[in-house]
UniProtKB/TrEMBL annotation:
Record PANTHER family: PHOSPHODIESTERASE YAEI, TRANSMEMBRANE PROTEIN WITH METALLOPHOSPHOESTERASE DOMAIN-RELATED
Keyword Ribosomal protein among UniProt keywords: no
Keywords, in A-Z order: Hydrolase, Metal-binding
GO BP: any one term: lipid A biosynthetic process
UniProt feature coiled coil, ranges: none
Protein species of origin: Anaerocolumna cellulosilytica
Cited Gene3D superfamilies: 3.60.21.10
GO cellular component: membrane
Entry keyword annotation includes Membrane: no
Name assigned to this protein: Phosphoesterase
Length: 285
């Protein structure tokens, strides 16, 4: 009888441990995929006009229709606390596997009240088949859409250039996409040049064309960052990618890569929490 009781208690303990482990795993993965981390950088350059010293940029990338709280309030509060002067959205605002323009615009319609929003497309805008609809809504909201365009950004009598290139999937021909980048670089007129481009894997091209500062996303931080320092896999780079997050420098070009906020075909992140990036610009004498 005693043996039967011991066996029963042993089974119950194992079941309790298994359930506890399951609940802890669920809580951990929820936290990993829903708790936003802020990464801050200071970018210094002698080429930056002095009036842009202290400019605060927040980068939002790869939202993929993800919601952070009711009406995106958790995401928006994080951005508000950073007090940005401008917000850069670097593609994949929507997800082609679960298209929801309303969710994307719920974020955008409130973000434009925090700061001017500059936007470039990602591959999912192309794959969705409804980019024209999204673009119309973005225009209505007052977003500055950079579809192979550049604009002057003026501050206290000085100016820099902010350019944006559409994702290469919109052209379907890589050489045409690279030619558009060259058009930008050939017409820079000695201005400090910021480029918004969804794809980090073209870093060598950005360096070749002489852009000063580039903001990208797309790689989702390599999705699973442990035990792989740069992640396990990134679209456009394959397994064991090199350009998935952080700040990278070559010659006179600096590339900042956001790990992004949402997920797409791979629904989970591991040691790779959703990320907002804040960059403070600093004029270096």
């Amino acid at each position: 009888m005693k043996r039967k009781v011991k066996v029963t208690l042993g089974i119950k303990m194992k079941v309790a441990c298994a359930l506890s482990l399951l609940l802890l795993s669920i809580a951990f993965f929820y936290w990993q995929n829903n708790s936003i981390v802020i990464t801050s950088y200071t970018y210094k350059s002698v080429l930056l006009p002095e009036s842009f010293d202290g400019l605060k940029i927040v980068q939002v990338s790869d939202l993929h229709n993800k919601s952070f709280g009711k009406h995106q309030e958790k995401l928006l509060l994080k951005i508000m606390d950073l007090e940005p002067d401008v917000i850069f959205v670097t593609g994949d605002l929507i997800d082609s596997n679960r298209i929801n323009v309303d969710t994307a615009m719920e974020f955008i319609n409130q973000a434009v009240n925090i700061a001017d929003v500059y936007y470039v497309t990602g591959n999912h805008e192309k794959w969705s088949g409804i980019y024209l609809q999204l673009k119309t809504e973005l225009y209505k909201a007052g977003v500055i859409i950079l579809d192979n365009e550049q604009v002057l950004f003026e501050r206290d009598g000085e100016s820099i250039v902010i350019a944006g290139i559409m994702d290469p999937d919109f052209t379907m021909v890589e050489n045409i996409w690279k030619e558009q980048l060259k058009v930008f670089s050939d017409n820079r007129e000695n201005k400090f040049y910021i480029l918004l481009s969804h794809r980090p894997e073209y870093f060598d091209t950005y360096v070749e064309d002489g852009f000063d500062l580039v903001f990208s996303g797309h790689a989702h931080g390599g999705q699973f960052r442990f035990p792989f320092p740069n992640g396990l896999y990134a679209p456009g780079q394959g397994f064991f990618p090199k350009l998935t997050a952080g700040i990278h420098k070559s010659d006179n070009t600096t590339l900042i890569i956001s790990r992004g906020l949402g997920n797409s075909k791979i629904p989970l992140r591991l040691f790779n929490r959703p990320e907002l990036i804040q960059v403070t610009m600093q004029y270096e004498k």
